[in-house]
Amino acid sequence: MVKSRVVPKQTIETDYLVVGCGAAGMAFADSLIDASSAQIVMVDRRHAPGGHWLEAYPFVRLHQPSAFYGVNSLPLGSETIDRHGPNEGFYERAGAAEICGYYDRVMRERLLPSGRVRYFPMSSYLGEHRFVSAVSAEEVEVKVRKKLVDATYLEGRVPASSAPPFEVAAGAHCVPVGALASVREKPAGYVVIGAGKTALDACTWLLDGGVAPSDIRWIKPREGWFINRKYLQGGELVGTMFEGISLQLEAAAQATSMDDLFARLEASEQLFRVDARVQPTMFRGPTISFGEIEQLRRIDEVVRLGKVQRIESDRIVLDGGTIPTSPGHLHVHCAAEGLNPAPERPIFSAGRITLQSIRIGLLPFASALIAYVEATRDDLEAQNRLCPPSRQPNLPEDWARGMLIGMKAANRWSKERDIADWLDRARLNMLRGLEQHGSEPHVQQAFMRFGVNIRPAISNLERLCGS
Ligand SMILES: Cc1cc2nc3c(=O)[nH]c(=O)nc-3n(C[C@H](O)[C@H](O)[C@H](O)COP(=O)(O)OP(=O)(O)OC[C@H]3O[C@@H](n4cnc5c(N)ncnc54)[C@H](O)[C@@H]3O)c2cc1C
Questions:
Q1: What total number of domains does the chain contain?
Q2: Which atom of ligand 1 lies at the shortest distance from residue 362's CA?
Q3: Beta-ladder partners of 289
Q4: Of ligand 1's atoms, which has the minimum distance to the CA of residue 123?
Q5: CA triple 27-382-118, angle to 5 deg
Q6: CATH number of the domain that 163 lies in?
């Protein structure tokens, strides 16, 4: 009998132990080495940096421009404006392969050559500053001189790695969204299950591929609000983004109720919904173009009977009823949780940093700013004042809460000279370069609208959010 080898325990020392090499951990490490002389150990159980993007469906794209995604020190993509397709007129959006290649470059060309970062892929964090390699079974203890950085707190769930939240009986055909790219024979029909960005992507991808709308049945447990992509552009189009912010503030200042707020946001084209007859009960933050909305409106067979409980070979059982299906139908699982609903917790605490968003959704930006604040300030209270956490959005009112948190934080940043300078330099700051567009008439108008509405908007949002 062969005795299992006892693997020796190794101890290493560092300033920061970053657990998680997804978008959050990578943006944090990149910004920290720029702003300090700190040493970092980075650990991830995956084989490469990039987090969930490594197992994303093949046709996924960022919903926002590449121009302000990734890390500060390296551009993602070539910052060009698309000249065709549903994203025409807007900045390019990277797909999964490009994003994974990008994070690989960030690690190989920026972090490791700094000589201050050590990276341990295929390694699971065990707690108490210890991790273990899946391939060597070697356990490593890390002596952390400064802080543990938890870049896993908002780890999301994607269909490729999470089973459907419903039963699938023998004889029924159900696949995660990514398997659509492996279809070799047209099924009797496609049944797309989910109401978030993944389901939207699945439907538009099928329609763009020439599938007739009548061949798609879309099971939507909820209707969502989506951000008009026109107003989430940076670079040369940053003035339009600011115009959008000023219109959002105007709506926030004048709204008489939460429903009225969303009616105003829709009227000023800040938010879209696919079906104008249904009041949305969801806001998760993705952007969409009007072209994509028009495409999605071609699907007539939308099932609104709540969540799927079970798919059988000849019927689908939902919370609110049953609909027919067949073994020849392809059921497409787009019902993973996606964004992590973890509650907000202080970003800075003794010996620990928990990476979370500050402006709605924009986690890479927040992670980079948090690193800068960590490098330049010691006092926990001051750090937390500059970096108030904003949980991942889920409900419409989360738009209002997120706006409030983001506006209050931006006000504090504007009063700290070095942070204002950092924001001017940071490619992850979506509003970077706005001053250069200050002479454009629509931007001047937006500045006036912003000035008139900022205070009333904050107090009205506080009233609407009950805070
Ligand atoms: C389809 C899709 C599209 C999106 N598009 C955008 C977009 O356009 N813009 C945007 O801002 N956001 C977008 N998001 C949100 C996205 O979640 C964030 O941008 C970001 O990628 C999240 O990064 P993260 O580092 O928090 O999480 P993850 O990418 O999940 O990374 C967490 C990492 O932690 C590691 N880990 C967890 N536990 C351990 C452990 N115990 N030991 C070791 N390692 C561990 C995991 O292996 C993982 O690599 C999108 C999300 C999805 C699903």
A1: 3
A2: 11
A3: none
A4: 43
A5: 30
A6: 3.50.50.60
